[in-house]
What we know:
The complex is a heterodimer of chains A (317) and B (402).
Chain A: H1 2-21, H2 25-50, H3 59-75, H4 82-102, H5 107-127, H6 129-132, E1 138-139, H7 148-170, H8 172-182, H9 184-189, H10 194-220, E2 222-223, H11 225-228, H12 231-245, H13 252-268, H14 270-273, H15 277-281, H16 283-297, H17 301-304, H18 306-316
Antiparallel strand pairs in A: 1-2
Helix pairs in contact in A: 2-7, 2-10, 2-12, 2-13, 3-4, 3-5, 3-10, 4-10, 7-8, 7-10, 8-10, 12-13, 13-16
Chain B: H1 2-21, E1 31-38, H2 45-64, E2 72-79, H3 84-97, E3 102-105, H4 109-122, E4 126-128, E5 144-146, H5 156-166, E6 170-176, H6 179-195, E7 198-205, H7 213-222, E8 226-230, H8 233-246, E9 252-255, H9 263-269, E10 277-280, H10 291-302, H11 308-326, H12 332-340, E11 343-346, E12 349-356, E13 359-363, E14 368-373, E15 376-381, H13 396-399
Parallel strand pairs in B: 1-2, 1-3, 3-4, 4-5, 6-7, 6-8, 8-9, 9-10
Antiparallel strand pairs in B: 10-14, 11-12, 12-13, 14-15
Amino acid sequence: MKRNQVIVALVGIIFVLFPLVVKSDYYQHLVILALMWVVIGGSWNLLAGYTGQVSFGHAVFFGTGAYTAGILANKLAISAWWGMAFGGFIAALVGLFIGWVCFRLRGPYFALATIAAGEIFRLIATNWESLTEGMLGIMILQTFRSKLPYYYVALALAASSIWVFDLVMKSKWGFYFVSIREDQDAAESLGINATLYKNISLLISSFFTGMAGAFYMNYMAFIDPEVVFSLHYISIMAILVGIIGGVATIWGPAVGAFIMIGVQETFRSALFGLAPSWVSQSHVLVFGLLVIFVILFMANGVVGDWPKIKRLFLRSR
Amino acid sequence: MSKAWKYILMVSVVISALAFMSPAMVYAADTIQVGIVLPLTGSQAAFGEIEKQSFDLALDEINAAGGIKGKKLEFLMEDDTGRPEVGRSVAEKLITKDKVVMLGGGYSSSVTAGLAGVAQQNRIPFLINTGSADDITEKGFDYVFRLNPPASEYSSGVEEFLANVVKPKSVAILYENTKFGTSSSKAFVKSCEKLGIEVLLNEGYEHAGIDYKPILVRVKQLNPDIVYMVSYVMDAALLMRQSRELQLTPKLFIGGGAGFTLPEFKENAGVAADYVVSATLWHEVLPLPGAMDYFKKFKARYNKDTEYHGAEAYAAAYVIADVLKRAKSLSPEDIKQALAQTDMMTAFGPVKFVSYGKKTNQNKLTTYVVQWQGGHLKLIWPTNLANAKYVYPVDWLKVWGF
């Protein structure tokens, strides 16, 4: 236990010092993106990994948060940073609504319903042009030229999300979540109100995803429905981050986020320009192979299968 | 305690490794690097490729002619994969890691909008050659310059052609639901109001779809005089193929540029591509110095035809070279100055950045009309420059082989 705390403290110190040591905007940018994915992956993990409700629609909450910030800036001409205050809550409201509809379904049917929810929200954002500007998207100017403010906001968001998830999972709610995942009927027979606790899990999950979305609007300064309500690039990416890092582990999604962003960028830029250009042309393929590899050989993700990985390397030594 | 020390040691190793990774201070003194951002993979790769090839072609010529002030020009090509988020990462990398002196490229409107924001924020000049949504040059970004006209002006040539030749009473507008598609369709609705054409349908469709028949059946029921489409390349080809299958026969099919002029459109649509009319920004027979030369050189090197996207990129390369030659130094401020003072002729047309209306640093160009005739893209409007007479009216069923 003591040892873990030391590690956490050290990781924290590294991240606080990182932008002061690495001055390159480019690397800071990549870490900011990864930190944002830590939040989204962790949120997905709380609902899917711990509570067993696999969502294919986290883009709904991400997009809602982003559009909350975007619309505030665009229509009311107030700073998009207010979106950080409201985005999470609006996303949680949307989460409640989706929970109300989708939690009538279980397992694969729930997953299918969340895909549908994601597509519905994307179509609404595309067609409600008077509110969202449709496919023209919302473009604002970043508040800061420096990356530092964004970095520390992202870091604070990531740290607080991990802290909250850890807290929740250590509380009795956490045990309820896991019991619902393991056997919903048995949990109910013990007097756990499954619908209530599934909604609580969704509420926390959607709140943090919405916050990440609002942050995205502030940081990227451009959104359109294809970007923030994307099934492929948001909903599926959230799942990959969770699975590659390790489902139902506190640190799994955090590790997964850094792996995903790192691998994506390494291959897209062809090992930072060192490899021939065909490497970057096949980056999508390599990405797919990596996912297949992880799912086949490390089904519990990097963090979940860490003992296995350690053993592998120890043995080869 | 010894455990803790081990971790601290590890941390310091990591930090020093990171510090080592940061700003690569290696300057290649004999080259000038310009970052070019294009979609080289993904659904817009066909456009990215023709533009990249044109950039490469121009680059070799520029360097063969002595480069810039004795230094070689170098284009760092980066792939934006057609996504704004990736485009932003790419621009950040080019600006802060590679330390390019300016940016070029910019294909899809949504990626370009993101790139423009990054360029403005970092005070790095950015010459856009294709991304055309109107609002990109309406933000008052003084570091952002655009070579191609905004989307709302793409159809000005088509407008004249409609007013003088086709004189339609009604139109159905189909557009790909993207930033470019939406901008273009809005502009065309305005054109229709001006020309007194009734808009029976103005509908966006999902990009990357494979079945457009439901929407085409509706068009068939409405029976408009003309069908106007704003599409990228695969959807353009599919729309025409499926129109043929449904025997949808308005007086004319008109494309709003983009996918309708690419050689890939003809290859994929086959016989259904014939006699389709499209707006264009360029054609090789135009009386522009170097236009035909560029067309022939492109054909010789890559063994395929080029069209206006390629010409935009080719011209952009020459504008970049010209600007860097005139700039007092390679500081962003001086390059911006030089860009603002640009006044040159290219194979794509005259380039001079002006401000009008809400727009700033925008190049103004005439637009033209082309028609696919027997597998070749022919310039049909304005008639004094045309290399073929327009074919109108068209007996579609006969053309399509029914």
